[in-house]
Write a structure and sequence with these properties.
Two copies of one chain form a homodimer. Chain A is α/β, with parallel strands linked by helices. The first copy, chain A, has ten helices and 13 strands. Chain A has a five-stranded mixed sheet. The longest helix of chain A is centred in the C-terminal third of the chain and has 25 residues.
């Protein structure tokens, strides 16, 4: 049996066919054009779904269910997107709209939860029953898997781990609160810190890298600078690793997952990031006498959204 | 059927008979005398258990199981106290030792987890499937109930919510890390903050209350001072409520429990504490569009340890 997974993002709609082991068989994507009415967006989702099924010589009867991963607050039971800032959805009955075109069970979940489910089924946390996946991007996405299921609290809004405090009253966070982990350890936070550091002190190799154009700073640049021995780059990365590790320590003290998966472009740094992170986490974690959480880099990359959405129906 | 619950603390061993609804039928306690060998402590536990059963005209066959709640790190599967700082236990096979005297199933869990289970079965979170219980005492104890069961991670060490950061690098915590929630919002933290404030500025009604003896400061005193309009008292309580609320907001953003139970002597302040806490939490929580967690004061008080331990076997 196959599963269809839809990763509905602010920029693209990515859809894929996934087998029952969480393996992606075929995928495609189209632009979301997010300012349209939701009925048009969902019609596009349905059309592309049917196209992918046919292109792979399958029929609807070969598909067990459709899963949709979407940013924002979701009511999984009712199949409604309660609120999504990214795609301007407000109480959108996405399940019933989708079923106007395709008569299959439709599941819907927050996209970060989908990514966590994907890593748990066929990614870096494969084989575990309890895991947490953290995605370091524009914000910090997070999903918690307990007993092989997404944990989402009594109201489907749980595991917003990016919005737990690192430094109460500190840097302003998108959520309106001051000092959330996201405001210090997302990729955006690293980019902002780099821009701020250059404004204060322009004597850095980073200035040459970006040819003076602050807009060219991405999360890789301070890492590159640090590797070249640049003082500002090293300071930025040391601080970033301290913030990232502190939040990961919090996650471990709270959840003690068997595997803690970290994803997002920053994690392409591999051992350069993991080694000092592991050292700091081990040093600061509460419970040192027991078997310890393993921190691993995400395996499924951008496909995690599709795979996790598909696995909602498993 | 009845259940026997044992709350093994650093000062006392409290034991009770509990029915299958989580109602405490009879209890008694003896001093722990914690510096003794564990074999002596467990023998006392067994003797008092048998005494309580007989005193209530029951026999061993009326008891389904024995549960033991113990501070520290527990291996529930193996029935071992891996490490407890409070009672100096180190790899103590408490289940097998107990079964030398009483031939019943023996369950063992961390005491904060037991308190959470008790509040969930017959206390402030009765009727919910997901709840979190926070106890504000010497430290911050916490237990998480998911699907009516204690959540303790893959290694039985989860839900150390007192050891998540409020202000990274801030006040020193007993765990060795700087800035944990416990270092700001435990009863001890409030007492220390009061002592520090008086050292800086002795012009407070608190000085009269304690007759100049800093050792007389308990967590109630700054509340009493604040209620009398004392400037230092009000400042202390405002700050304490800010810290407490920030950590509770973190718990909600992470777990979204249906009920978040808070216990410990500080909670005797009732609405005086709950009202501003609720206001701050609502203001700062991430997800405002969904049904919201209810914050309630613990109901079972000191009996929570016994009741929760007993309910381990249910």
């Amino acid at each position: 049996m196959l599963y269809l997974g839809i990763d509905l993002g602010g920029t693209n709609i990515a859809i894929g066919l996934v087998d029952d082991k969480g393996k992606l068989i075929s995928k495609d994507s189209i632009p979301t054009n997010k300012d349209r009415d939701y009925t048009e967006i969902v019609k596009d989702m349905a059309d592309l779904s049917i196209y992918i099924i046919k292109r792979n010589s399958y029929e609807l009867k070969d598909i067990k269910s459709i899963g949709i991963g979407c940013p924002g607050t979701i009511d999984s039971e009712k199949g409604i997107v309660i609120y999504s800032n990214n795609i301007k959805f407000n109480n959108v009955p996405i399940r019933s709209e989708m079923q106007k075109y395709i008569d299959l069970p439709v599941f819907i979940e927050n996209d970060a939860n989908c990514a966590a489910l994907a890593e748990s089924v066929s990614g870096a946390a494969k084989g575990t029953t309890n895991s947490v996946t953290i995605t370091l991007g524009t914000g910090i996405g997070s999903g918690v898997i307990i007993d092989n299921k997404i944990y989402s609290g009594f109201n489907n809004a749980a595991s917003e781990l990016g919005h737990t405090t690192l430094i109460l009253g500190g840097k302003e966070c998108t959520c309106g609160r001051g000092g959330c982990w996201e405001a210090y350890a997302s990729a955006t936070a690293l980019i902002r810190a780099t821009q701020d550091a250059l404004r204060e002190n322009s004597n850095s190799v980073i200035n040459k890298m970006i040819k003076g154009d602050m807009e060219k700073i991405d999360a890789k640049i301070p890492f590159d600078a640090a590797k070249q021995g640049d003082k500002i780059g090293s300071m930025l990365i040391d601080k970033y690793i301290e913030y990232l590790s502190a939040g990961l320590t919090n996650v471990i003290n709270a959840f003690q997952p068997e595997v803690l998966v970290i994803g997002g472009g920053v994690c392409n740094q591999g051992e350069y990031l993991l080694e000092p992170v592991n050292k700091l986490v081990k040093q600061n974690m509460f419970c040192k006498e027991v078997r310890q959480t393993e921190i691993k880099v995400a395996k499924l990359g951008n496909d995690a959204g599709i795979v996790g959405a598909a696995m909602l129906g498993k």
